[in-house]
Design goal:
Blueprint lengths: L11 H12 L11 H8 L12 E6 L14 E2 L4 E4 L4 E4 L6 H17 L3 E4 L17 E4 L2 E4 L11 H11 L3 E4 L11 E5 L2 E6 L5 H13 L3 E6 L11 E5 L2 E4 L6 H9 L3 E4 L12 E4 L2 E5 L4 H9 L3 E5 L2 H4 L10 E5 L3
Parallel strand pairs: 1-5, 7-8, 10-11, 13-14, 16-17
Antiparallel strand pairs: 1-18, 2-3, 3-4, 6-7, 9-10, 12-13, 15-16
Length: 341
């Protein structure tokens, strides 16, 4: 009588393979952002979970030949500006400082940062003709564990994304998201209030799709994102709000929605307002440690006194010639590594 050969559930190979993979299973923990995982995989802890933790590494770009395009722009009398709609390049106001003036002030800011113990790294290159590349704050956002490469709004800034990506990759910094699709995002309109709460200013430079993509990344880390509507054609929230201590912010109340300022109060944030004696870039300062700030040397005595009474120490630098291009100290610095708070 013929016997039916036995039927096996799996081959010996499949059995051994499955048991091996079970024994050497995947491990979701520790999380990507954890200190041990960052150090093991990426060589160090990258990113920031605040805007006030001790600043360790900052990205900057020394203005160079890309600035020469400004000298070629035709005057637009009715706007008191220079610009070329064909290329999208523009320059606000009727003063065009020399490249040497801007370089000198930028070098002085970089020197002040180094003196504060900060490592300054520079973009590997600037995209041709992208004369706003000096404002590195906008092209990437350092968050816990890595960076978000943004997607710039106006035509003259589109193209800055590639050089910043090359630079971060060369540093070995993880890129957690590149804003894509129709999303628009510029880093000057993002700020941490504290590690679990951040804000983004929705404006002509940041649309809802960009905010949604940013929110996705932050949500993984347990950070709530507040949306603030920037009034009129103002660009970024850092013209009106910058954190300078654990529970202190410098603000321009004429540029912030009432509901946002009320939310700051609920979060226990003390607001120090600028006044009519301050230059326009006073708020656009940079905390290098909790309660330690680099800011424009044109800040009024009244605001300096208010900062001193709040326990804020300030270091003043001359930055007015760079400011003529549309951005201050905060705009010119993109933190890549801060100590956690």
């Amino acid at each position: 009588m013929n016997k039916t050969p036995p039927s096996f559930a799996m081959s010996e190979f499949d059995h051994r393979y499955n048991m091996l993979i079970e024994r050497f299973a995947s491990e979701p923990d520790p999380a990507f952002e954890s200190a041990s995982e960052q150090s093991f995989v990426w060589g160090r802890e990258w990113g920031c979970n605040s805007d006030i933790g001790r600043l360790r590494v900052v990205l900057m770009h020394r203005p160079g030949e890309e600035m020469r395009v400004v000298d070629t722009l035709p005057h637009i009398p009715e706007l008191n500006a220079f610009g070329d709609p064909a290329t999208g390049a523009y320059w606000r106001g009727n003063q065009r400082p020399t490249l040497e003036e801007q370089q000198a002030q930028h070098d002085a800011l970089a020197a002040a940062l180094r003196d504060e113990g900060v490592e300054v790294v520079y973009l590997k290159r600037a995209a041709a003709g992208r004369h706003k590349s000096i404002y590195t704050r906008d092209s990437c956002i350092g968050i816990k564990g890595g960076a978000i490469v943004t997607r710039m709004g106006p035509r003259i800034r589109r193209g800055e994304e590639a050089p910043v990506t090359e630079t971060l990759a060369a540093l070995g910094m993880p890129i957690l998201r590149t804003i894509h699709g129709a999303g628009l995002m510029e880093g000057g309109s993002f700020a941490y209030i504290r590690p679990d709460v951040a804000v983004v200013g929705v404006s002509s430079r940041v649309n809802e799709e960009g905010a949604r993509q940013l929110e996705e990344v932050l949500a993984v880390q347990g950070t709530r994102l507040i949306r603030v509507q920037i009034p009129g054609y103002r660009l970024h929230i850092d013209g009106g709000f910058v954190m300078i201590h654990h529970d202190v912010a410098i603000v321009n109340p004429s540029m912030l929605p009432f509901v946002f300022m009320e939310e700051l109060k609920r979060l226990g944030i003390r607001m120090i307002p600028v006044n009519h004696e301050d230059p326009s870039w006073t708020v656009n300062c940079l905390a290098v440690a909790p309660g330690r700030v680099i800011m424009s040397d044109r800040v009024s005595a009244r605001t300096q006194d208010a900062l001193d009474k709040a326990g804020i120490s300030i270091r003043l630098v001359d930055y007015d010639r760079v400011g003529l291009g549309g951005g201050g100290i905060h705009c010119s610095t993109s933190p890549l590594v801060r100590d956690s708070v």
